[in-house]
Design a protein that fits this description.
Length: 67
């Protein structure tokens, strides 16, 4: 798995801004609450080790989008 820094440096800054705005909107929505809850479940399943918040969030998004 690529490091966070490598992934961020290879991404267009405008895409990062757009993604951040979309995520901020999601945080205030019921869909955002579903994602947040699932991401927390994933965190607990990993043993509650910090440092993987983004990965947990993205996994939760993927899971809820495909279901």
């Amino acid at each position: 798995m690529a490091s966070k820094a490598a992934r961020l440096s290879s991404t267009d800054p405008m895409e990062l801004d757009t993604a951040a705005v979309e995520r901020a909107g999601l945080l205030r929505s019921s869909r955002g609450q579903e994602i947040r809850t699932r991401a927390y479940e994933i965190y607990l399943q990993r043993g509650g080790h910090p440092g993987y918040e983004l990965e947990d969030w993205l996994q939760a998004e993927r899971e809820l989008t495909t279901n």
